[in-house]
Amino acid sequence: MRRLRVGIDVGGTNTDAVALEGGQLVAWVKTPTTADVTTGIVTALDQLLENDAVTAAEIADVMVGTTHFTNAMAEVKGLLPTAVIRLCGPATRALPPMVDWPPQVYRAVNGRVFLCQGGHEYDGREIVPLDRQELKDVAAEMRTVGLRTIAISAVFSPVNGSHEQEAAAVIADEHPEAKLSISTEIGRIGLLERENATIVNACLAGVADQIVPTLEDTVRRHGIAARIHLCQNDGTLMDADYAYRYPVATFASGPTNSMRGAALLSGESDCVVVDIGGTTTDVGVLRKGFPREAAVAVAIAGVRTNFRMPDVLSLAIGGGSVVHLEPEVTVGPESVGYRLSTEARVFGGPTLTATDLAVACGQATVGDPGLVAGLDPEVVEQGLGWIRRRIAETIDRMKTEPDPIPVVVVGGGSLLLDGALAGASRVVRPEHFQVANAIGAALAQVGGQVDRVVSLETTLRDQAVEAAKHEAATRCIAAGADPASVRVVDVEEIPLAYLPSNAVRIVVRAIGDLRESR
Q1: Which of 296, 219, 212, 198 has its CA nearest to residue 59?
Q2: Exposed, middle or buried by CB within 10 Å (0-12, 13-18, 19+), for 414?
Q3: How do strand 445-455 and strand 236-239 relate by DSSP bridges?
Q4: How sure is the predictor about 204, in pLDDT bands with cuts at 50, 70 and 90?
């Protein structure tokens, strides 16, 4: 029997699904995204299984790139009150946890804050020893008031994470029902941003408890006995158990899926990817076939975080973007979104959209071209020219060197572009470009990453790098990779001149093929 992989990616306008055998596309569908997200996934699966080339029994794995968790943060829905334990001793008390959070998000998430003994200096020395009895008392208080989601962070834990691990063990013993998020497993250097990322991960535990079983049930109700995987924002997969622990890792998985799909479809491993959807255009950079990560703090619902996120610039330009004629021809930022099939003029609607412009000049063949035959050619050219200029400017902002670079254009709205782009050595629109996001999800591998700071005065460089490689490979296997396929694909060493003791930041990424089901 064939073993098919199904990839599903939820976008702002469309939900796409593909079935692949090996690396070959068997079938694909594109259906409007729904307000509750899940209904759109159900519809996509329904339509995919209506294709004679796909049967439920042949599907071995289902990969889902979902916006459920991102939406929960943006809408401040389903977030659990979270207790924050900061191990800091007398340090950092001037700026307590969540000090800079937007008021609405703060009110929803703030449980209790505990500033406890512990933490380390920049060179790994203890600020003060951990107080286990203090932590037992904290756990008892949280158990009494019913707080079960807990975020643990410590000062300079990326240099020495032992206090976080010890504190987590104490809390787990005293409060077995608690769900713990530990900052060294989520964020990077920068106490407040790393702590924020950990709190965000913790407060999404309730959403994960609802969404992961819902996704599994949705697949099962279609008669599919396959394993379920969620897409992470570094272009890799995680299984359901991993998703329960790290829901924050799904943020921005959509643009990441598109970039990975673009690499797989085009054969380009170092390039700029322009993903044009119905609502937005996402521009990112591929390095060695994987998205370049953002080097600065990223705001999620107004909360500054520093966990891994793809380096993506988004424009409010897509197939559903509204065209404005006064005082000059511009496109967006308003969009008809998933209402494109009823609102755009080519579908008999009242709104002039970017899709109408593409159809009017012959770049796209959707809807009824006769409905836009009377558009002023100058308006069409000015509108599409405006789109090209905005995208070219964004590409230029993403480049790190002045030379032209290959540009891969994907997404259902990529028909808005035709021909060359300023700053591009070549423009590639690969086959099946319109479902590159779902293909990226379906063909994703499993990954593991380590990001730590090491003092080379107390550890030999080679030993530090090898230890980081081993830990990255271990995390990759824990996330569901076949141990025999795991390999290290990227090692970065970044000297930290602002820290003494010859400190260096070591970042290691390992990837592997998804472990076969038994």
Answers
A1: 219
A2: buried
A3: parallel
A4: very high
Q: Which residues pair with 284 in a beta bridge?
A: 273, 312
- Of 459, 451, 383, 394, residue with least CA distance to 422: 394
Residue 517 has pLDDT above 70, yes or no: no
H helices of 35-83, in order, are 38-49, 68-75
**CB hemisphere CA count around 355 (13 angstroms):** 34
**Backbone conformation region of residue 302, classed left if phi is above 0, alpha if psi is from -120 to 50, else beta:** left
Give the DSSP H/E element, type plus range, for residue 220.
helix 205-220
- 247-303, pLDDT tens digit by residue? 998 888 888 888 888 988 898 888 999 998 888 888 999 888 888 887 777 888 889
Using CA atoms, how far residue 344 sits from 333, 375, 382, 432, in Å, is 15, 13, 19, 24
- Dihedral angle computed from the Cα positions of residues 353, 359, 364 and 365, in that order, rounded to the nearest 10 degrees: 120
Q: Which pair of structure tokens corresponds to residue 141?
A: 């208080």
Please measure the distance between the N-terminal and C-terminal CA atoms of the chain and give it in whole angstroms: 14
Rounded to the nearest 5 degrees, what angle is found at the Cα of 298, between the Cα atoms of 88 and 204?
70
Q: What torsion do the CA atoms of 271, 272, 276, 279 make, to the nearest 10 degrees?
A: 140
| Residue 238 pLDDT exceeds 90 | no
What kind and span of H or E run contains 494? Answer: strand 487-495
What is the β-pairing status of strands 271-276 and 487-495? Answer: unpaired
Give the three-state DSSP class for 503: strand
pLDDT, average across residues 436-457: 85
CA angle 473, 477, 483 (to 5 degrees): 85
Q: Measured between alpha carbons, how far is residue 297 from residues 178, 208, 247, 395, 513 in Å? A: 28, 24, 18, 21, 30
User: What is the token pair recorded at 445?
Assistant: 């591998």
Q: Which residue has the tokens 């035709």?
A: 418
Q: What is the 3-state secondary structure (H, E, C) of 95-131?
A: CCCCCCCCHHHHHHHEEEEEEECCCECCCCCECCCCC
Measured CA to CA, the distance from residue 231 to residue 63 in angstroms comes to 7
Distance between CA atoms of 102 and 197, rounded to whole angstroms?
Answer: 14
What residue type is 420 in one-letter code? Answer: A
Q: Which residues, including other chains, have CB under 8 Å from residue 87's CB and lie 6 or more apart?
A: 116, 117, 118, 119, 130, 152, 153, 154, 155, 157, 163, 164, 167
**Cα dihedral value 315, 316, 320, 323, nearest 10:** -110
Please give the structure tokens belonging to residue 279: 């609502």
DSSP per residue over 435-463, as a string? GHHHHHHHT-EEEEEEEEEEETTTS-HHH
- Report residue 412 CA to chain centroid gap: 20
* pLDDT tens by residue, 310-341: 888 888 888 889 999 888 899 888 888 778 88
Tokens representing residue 447 in the block: 């990954």
- Helices 38-49, 205-220: axis angle to 10 degrees equals 20
Structural tokens at position 476: 């990759």
137's enclosing H/E stretch is: helix 132-145
